[in-house]
Design a protein that fits this description.
Length: 199
């Protein structure tokens, strides 16, 4: 068990859990857990707000005896991205992706997610993918503009690790917050603004 000094939730560590047994359905969950813990830290310290977007679900049937028990439901429509929020007075929108190889296949990026993030960027928001390479234990902020540029100019069916490393910004791990996402965002989007304030 891990107890966080900032009063965060206690987490049980499963020593028998290995990446080799992680199926594709659950990929992204460990990254999302790290984002959730980090987001809670940022909100608790009034640094930023990031919310996990709920998946739109249409309830079809509920239990006749327990009104709070849903017996049948279906996804109403595709959700856009995983998270949105505010940081340094800017709107933030991003999607989490994990891969167990040294590439991120293009088919892992849904067209509607790419279009949504591109629209956010066009309207002045900050839009990106958070990409984790599980085998390397590295996580990057990867701006939507590099995704669009790649789709226009490449015929390859995957982003290489080198491409994302070169064009992205490393999100370092720490004890609390779990991921130094805000430092990566500062480096990627707010460098000039921070320099101006220091002068």
């Amino acid at each position: 068990m891990i107890k966080y000094p900032n009063g965060g939730p206690t987490i049980k560590v499963d020593k028998n859990n290995s990446n080799s047994t992680t199926n594709r359905k659950n990929m992204g969950m460990s990254l999302e857990k790290d984002i959730e813990l980090s987001s809670k830290y940022f909100m608790d310290h009034n640094l930023a707000i990031f919310y996990k977007k709920p998946t739109p679900v249409h309830v079809y049937k509920v239990s006749p005896t327990k009104s709070h028990l849903i017996t049948e439901a279906y996804f109403e429509k595709k959700s856009t991205t995983d998270y949105n929020g505010l940081y340094r007075q800017r709107y933030i929108d991003f999607e989490c992706k994990e891969t167990k190889t040294k590439t991120l296949p293009l088919d892992r990026l849904s067209r509607h997610q790419v279009e949504h993030l591109f629209r956010v960027k066009q309207l002045g928001g900050i839009a990106f993918f958070v990409v984790r390479f599980n085998t390397l234990d590295e996580t990057y902020v990867f701006d939507i503009s590099h995704v669009i540029e790649y789709l226009k100019n490449n015929t390859k069916q995957a982003f290489s690790y080198d491409y994302i490393k070169t064009n992205g910004f490393l999100i370092r791990k720490s004890y609390s917050p779990r991921l130094e996402l805000l430092k990566a965002l500062d480096e990627a989007y707010f460098k000039d603004e921070i320099k101006e304030k220091q002068i």
